[in-house]
Write a structure and sequence with these properties.
By secondary structure, the protein is an alpha+beta fold. The chain has one domain (3-55, 63-111). The chain contains three helices and seven strands, in the order ββββββααβα. It has helices at 71-87, 98-102, 106-116; strands at residues 3-12, 19-29, 32-44, 47-51, 54-56, 63-65, 103-105. It has a five-stranded antiparallel β-sheet with strand order 4-3-2-1-7. A two-stranded antiparallel ribbon has the order 5-6. Helix 1 packs across helix 3.
Length: 117
Amino acid sequence: MTVTFTVTGLERVEGHGRLLALATLEIEFDGVTLGLQGVQVIRRGKRITTQAPRFRNPKTGVWAPAVILPDELGAAIAQEVRRMLLGRPGQTPRGASLSEVFSTPLDQLIEDSINDT
């Protein structure tokens, strides 16, 4: 199965504790595209992590993930969002859309993370 994702939006958030930004993604599974909104970029000590969108269970009041992603996909998304948040200049090159600039095949990110260690 071929899986790719595109970060279509990244909005910095100020004044909300550990929450640094919210990301919007498109994940494509063998030609079927799923939109994912509300991926949270969180500060945990000196690290930056991502967290799947969440909802509050109406019966228990406990927050739970709205989507459970495979570990490899979640790690690749976290890596790309961190890279964008920390390294992006704030503008895309002239004539390029955000999705063209930040579209990343999952297998390439996994391979890159293996080679980085």
